Amino acid sequence: MMSACQVHQKNILVAEVRENVKMGLKTLFQLIPIQPHLNHMISIIRARPCDYPRIISCFLFISSIVENSDFPFHFNEIMELINNIQIGAPELLIETCCGFLKDVFDHYHGPKKSSNGPTIVIDPVFKWLAQFPESVHNIMEVRGEVYTEMFPAINSDFRFINNVVVFCREITGVEILAGYIKNFMLNHSFEHETIYFLENFVYFYSEDISNNKNRDDSVRFALFVMTAFSIVTDGMTNKGVISEHLPIIEKASDLCLKVIDHFKDYEELCLKTSDVLCYLVYASEAINPDHEKLSERLVEYYQTLGYSCFIRPYLAFLLYLGYETRFIGEWFLRDCKVIFEKACDFLPPEDSNRDPRHLERVLRLLSQIISKHYDDILENIDIERLVYLASQGLLSQEEKTFNQCYGFLIELFDHPTTEICKKRPETHSIVARLYNGHVYQIVKNCIEVILTQKIVTCVKGCGRILSIFCSAGGVRGGAYLKIEKELIVEMLEKYPNEMCSDGSISDEMIKILNARSKEEAENLAAMINSILNKCHK
Fold this sequence. Notes:
The structure is a single chain. By secondary structure, the chain is mostly helical. The protein has four domains: about 1-105 and about 120-140; about 150-290; about 310-420; about 440-535. About 70% of the residues lie in helices and about 0% in strands. The chain is built from 25 helices and no strands. The chain has helices at about 5-30, 35-45, 50-65, 70-85, 90-110, 125-130, 135-145, 150-165, 170-185, 195-210, 220-235, 245-260, 265-285, 290-305, 315-320, 330-345, 355-370, 375-380, 385-395, 400-415, 425-450, 455-475, 485-490, 505-515, 520-535. The longest helix is centred in the last third of the chain and has 28 residues, at about 425-450. The protein starts with a helix and ends with a helix.
């Protein structure tokens, strides 16, 4: 069996052989009439619809006359033959037809009208191709390897794929086709061309959404377009973006905001659009546009719609503002404060599993801000309710949610990045208040995780939190409540079904409080959890 690399090299070789055959046929048909041979090929396809090898040869022949002035007269008849090919036909036949139709697009896209013939209508081509996104991907991938040096053709290829995308009926087809563009850009080195790709995409998507806004399936259509746009921009970098490119970035942002305004009732569509906005903020870092107005719009969307996807661009803003510096924009702090306050209204305080992505996004933003702006955030934003939500999030059944809650609590109470901050006295009092107000609930939840959770990383994380909280009460002094072993024993009594009868679990849990390192605390928690799992089998 050939490896994937060998198969790919074989496909490239086949594509090169096909091109050589087509070039030879083109030369031949300059010397002999085409019509009799074309009629013969069409008659073979009609007479033997299941003779796939012969049909493949016929389409290879037909593809050699695409540029001939007589071709437009026969296109509709040929397209009818292609439409009659069944979806279950051999992959080689499907890919041969896809390659043929790509040749038709390359020569007639626009559409163009022959000076002495009928117009080639391209839409039926895209409609048929949209049934076979994987085959389109395959022929484009091979052509991309063969013709990488022909840079002027790349934009045409991207436009071809985008036209197929808008006729897809399933989101998976969109993801496959847009994925080709993304991977192509990731695997090839471009300088200033990236921003011009973006400009072409914005023009194409804007045109399509505008032209299709009254369609019955406008929501599906817009979702597919913005899904493609989000995947494509994920393959771009901000390399080569300069101040002269600012109008392109602004036009792309305007498109995103128009989509959100028009389809604000559809959260998934807003999510894809927010992904594009994240890229635009990252890409424009070097040209320093004014993002305050964009932030105002995002905050407004978040307040009225409650979609957590509107939080994601703020992580990009944070990088743009200077994540590694002490500077933080007033507008950024103002808008984040609104987000944190509204998040507490949107998120259910007792159920961390109802909207875990929302909780993750809020705490990720807050964690990254306080890691570099600890004093400023604690003194200017009341995070009391978010601390409670994070403590409840430790009980989440999703590891990703737990990790975000755990990371936030560690950053807040242990502050591993403290070496770059000089804590002010006001900060100490705020942290002590938050600690004393939530320590019992956090300890209780950590114990429950150690006793019941099946995910070892979560168990170890709670072991570390218990160790930190014990150190806080014992080392930091009177302002912090101390965690006594009697409290641990009392809490363990609330879980009789989880405890083994010999009582050794209580002793092992107390050892966590006296652990000399985070690794020791984590390992003790994992050991307790393992003992209980064996005990209950």
